[in-house]
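README: folding subset

This subset contains proteins for which both the sequence and a predicted structure token string are available. Records are stored as plain text. Below is the entry for ABC transporter ATP-binding protein (273 residues), shown exactly as it appears on disk.
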Amino acid sequence: MPEAPMQGLLDVQGLGIRFGGLDAVKDVTASIPAGQITAIIGPNGAGKSTFFNLISGFYVPTAGTIRFRGEDVTRLKTHQVVARGVARTFQTTTIYRELSVLEGVMIGHRVRTRAGLLDALLRTGREKRDEDASRAGAMRALERVGLAPQAHRPAGALTQEGQKRVGIAMALASDPALLLLDEPAAGMNPDETVRLMALIRELVQGGLSVALVEHKMSLVMGLADRILVLHHGQLIAQGTPAEVSRDPAVITAYLGSHAHGGQMGQGVGAGHA
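--- output ---
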């Protein structure tokens, strides 16, 4: 398979990581374009979450490079990657349930502020200005996800869908250019999933770029502009949903016994094909 041209918002070249002598991700070369929705799919154990952990700075690769907006970010720490414009959510909804929705989302904005511990202890002018900026940034993020009216409710009192939106707002509060969504529709019913798809489309139309790991093929095929398929840690296919759904390597590796009328076929029928 020819290598992808290295001209995306985020580019990886020969990316890999080994755990205990085993390759969790191996020699992946791909791009995540700006202004689009890129889905990363594959069977369980394919390396999808590990790939996300690499590009978001949670893991340091043992091989290859990661470039974001042309800058080499391969060995930057997570907070440094976030500060450059990459934010992510996680498979499980990670929110501060005891805080108000607004207070929780304000935490996501703190990466953009300068006040330190001493400022916080002494309540300096810089700390107060940063707190005001964080509150304003959090409210903008809540407006983007449709939760501004819920800002002062306890986050734990929201529905599963509401809590998912809080998690997305926490990521948006850091003002990213690229949003990484790790199984955003996990635990959501079909109606909630449709509303989530609409939200993701709105965010991209507003100028954001999105990459997501997701198992729900109806969501992937109906939402993604581009798909990367991993299998045993290696990239085996990439392209539009229609192209990927017809790829023999994908059918063999991803669907197995579902190859005839399985998930992928249903997903294409519901989406782009």
